[in-house]
Records
---
Amino acid sequence: MTTITDRPFEGRTQKILATLKDAGQLKHLQTIEGPMGPTVKLRGYGEVACFCSNNYMGLANHPEVVEAGIEGLRRYGAGTASVRFICGTFECHETLEAKIAEFYGCEAAYSFTSCWNANEAIFPTLCEPGDLIISDELNHASIIDGVRLAGVIKKGLHKGVFKHADLGDLRTKLEAARANVQVTGAIWVVTDGVFSMEGDIGDLPGLRAVCDEFGALLVVDDSHGTGVMGLTGRGTHEHWGMDATKVDYFTGTLGKALGGAAGGYVVGSRKAIDLLIQRGRPTLFSNALPATVACSAQKAIEILMREPQRVQKLRDNVAYARSMIREAGFQVLESPTAICPIIVHDTAKAIAMSKRLLELGVFVIGFGFPVVPEGHARLRCQVSAAHEKQHLDAFGEALRKLRKEFR
Ligand SMILES: Cc1ncc(COP(=O)(O)O)c(C=O)c1O
């Protein structure tokens, strides 16, 4: 009798997993036994300082954020049991979306169950055949897949990639598009605000200027910039002293600085949001954001608007953590963002180093292929406003020990 493991697919899967294991590239899911904070209780390791979460503002376990979620659960129950356009739009979705639009200073916002979904909604819905989408080569996977999907759904949509942060290359591509008689519609330029793996910042003023030269729309996914960048944490545009309306559309997540639970959104013109409500497949065919999450996220945004000093604390922590990394003898990709990557090139080495850091009481994940290109493996250290000096010092001490062991 043939068993399940005899099937060709099972054998193939087994082989791929074995190859990853042999190459030292197998990821191990670490289980946390309590809330997300500056330290976490990690199964098998106990309490460790957490330097790999996106809890940039330290709001994931803020008492008011937790209470708002509990209150939402009591008031609305566990979920909508529906997509938004049937019977899944609760009052808390409307108030959350109004709060997001207010936070950005833009006309309208619409929520999704993730930013991944937001990116898979915006391009296939708003773009049409004859349009061109040009995307930075290091944009997040959800943008890449959203653009790919748009190309499949809208036949005759043109796609292109420009070299990372290279305005000259973007201009060359746009000049070629101008000469291409098949590009008859809108041109969309897409960038991350803060690049998730490098921690560098998109040159939004430069991109805006190029977009204006070619009549293009600018879309910014500011998942890692929202709540972090600019004096009041409004995002990467604020860092550059730009009004949010200079960006045509933002996408972003509620799963990082804005409470850390889950959810994403698109921010922009009322008309575009209306079209997303009418035609966006992730919202037409998938359930709404759970009410408890919507309530928590709204509270997180309120706290951030009320306490902009949190942004300064994060900035101070980032400067201190970056000095610790350099002092330990590692090179960190320079930028003022909370993402501090230490490039170690080899995936197996990155994983081994992150394992050693855990033994030293510091939780940092090693990233390798396919999350980053082959040969670009790294330890991605992330800093939070929730970190206090003792956490940052523990981080520095562990790095110094690590450096001695992995010269
Ligand atoms: C730039 C960027 N966009 C989108 C996402 C996806 O966000 P979500 O977890 O809300 O789907 C991420 C998450 O890592 C991200 O870094």
---
Amino acid sequence: MLSGRRQTEEAAERLLREAGALLEGHFQLASGRHSGVYVEKFRLLERPPQTDALCGMIADWARELSPQVVAGPTTGGIIISYEVARHLGLRSIFAENAEGGGRSFQRGFTIAPGERVLVVDDVLTTGGSVRDVLEAVRAMGGETIAVAVLIDRSGGKSDGPTARLGSVGTDFGVPSFSCLALDLPSYEADGCPLCEQGLPLTIT
Ligand SMILES: [Zn+2]
């Protein structure tokens, strides 16, 4: 099982590097923190074969949980949801920004009461987008049965009752999966060693 997990991670990292999605340098992340590595997910998502391969890993993991519909947040999550749903032969829906905050399912998307929803996203950082989708699923009466992402850079350690091999570092209260977990250091702008070295900063 361990070697299977390692194979998954190695394959995922190779795909990301091939796609040029793992950038090294000096970046200011959306959180305001600085990091030496940035995941430019759209270098991956603009490549259907690589994106398809990673979404296939998610589908293979999720199949035994018998999801009935796949849902993701805008923007990258739409692509992940669609590809994973294609592998599983399911519907794909997405939650987008709602008036007054959070996300909701619009455009006539429906979830039947108790319908089993697999929630997916591209890169997990703070978990905010995934939580928005979980809330939107709840609001429609659906049941989220699992969360899966391409890349987990949340850096946390899940040790709750749902923790399992390959689970993400953020506990959403359901089984979770990532194709690749990246433990990437990031720094407060104040004590950033890359700033000290005088490396030019890229605002992401
Ligand atoms: Zn810095």
